[in-house]
Design goal:
Layout lengths: L1 E3 L12 E3 L3 H4 L10 E6 L4 E7 L5 E3 L7 H23 L8 H14 L2 H21 L11 E3 L3 H12 L7 E7 L7 E2 L4 E3 L1 H5 L15 E7 L2 E6 L4 E3 L6 E4 L2 H14 L3 E4 L5 H15 L5 E5 L10 E5 L12 E3 L1 H5 L21 H8 L4
Parallel strand pairs: 1-6, 7-13
Antiparallel strand pairs: 2-5, 3-4, 3-14, 7-11, 8-14, 9-10, 10-11, 12-17, 15-16
Helix pairs in contact: 2-3, 3-5, 4-5, 7-8
Length: 370
Amino acid sequence: MCIITTVKSMNITDKKNQHYIPKLYLRFFSFENNRNQIGFYNFKNKIFKSRIPLKHQASGDFFYGQDGKLEDWLNTVENFSTPVLKKIIETDSIAELGDQSDILLFFIFLLANRTKGFAEYLQEEADVMFDNFLAYDKRLKDVPKDLKIKLNNPAQIGIDSALKHFPSLLDLESKLIVNNTLIPFVCSDSPVVKYNQYLEKRNHKSSHVGLPCKGLQLFVPLSPRHLVLYYDGWAYRVGDKQKSTIKINDVKDVARLNYLQAVNCEQQIFFNHELREKEISSMIVEASQFRSIERKHLKSYGTINELDRNLRLHSYKENLSVKLELSFITETKKAKKHVLSDYVLQLRDESIRRQDVSNYMRLSRLTPLT
């Protein structure tokens, strides 16, 4: 049994092919910069293509809805973002962005939340949470066990979440990584990689990559030669403190950053003409062992009685953990000396625990590890 809510639209947009990874972004990785073709590897089908038409990659029919309103809004955001991305790539710098730095961060956070993979995760999370409500709450004992709730537009929910939670990222520091090696950066159908070297080294339980988490990192390739890193400045020292750009010459660093894309992607990796099939194959073999790990967990805290008052359900993906080491990132002295609290969430800003701004924040306050 399935409950589906639908909203009928009077007008259907002629923009049927809707990209969950923007074409403007993929074009920076195009074959010989021709803007029309791109290199491609698909994990599911194990298909390698040195170049294929870019037009239909990372897209779906009416992915954001048939009325075209969300698609049009995203196009507006992309129009604001394109000059910023071009400026970074042309100047090898983010130092002169000024107020445009917020545009870049918003584009990137939106990029993380608008993907097909994120929409599928939201649906899976709803399924798991609902199944647990049925299991725990005796008031629902007569509800059919095969009842499912289908989200009407999970992509819309992901974008709404980006709008709501974007301010929680504004405290992160940023650096531009410029690749001076002969091996290009790759991107994927899930190009924003959330990571946390700080909590990974301490084997912390629960999620490492919640937006307010201490030690959070975002690795995002912008072109075959450029990658932007957002990070918790309390936890990490990244390159020279006085410089916003880091030039890397070690192919091991590039390989590890590309490896993150291969492990984090849903199915597809994209690249330009500079990457050979041999290099892709090596990355695929190494990444496959981590891609086989189920990265979705649901944990419950509290009791099964009085669900609305005592039980807390905490759903999260298994952390991406590949023992990442990069030559230009070290921990700060403060981070090395810090002792983790007993809370599920290790927050960059501890004052959040005293704010009842959402159920998510109340969860972090009320459920210490036992």
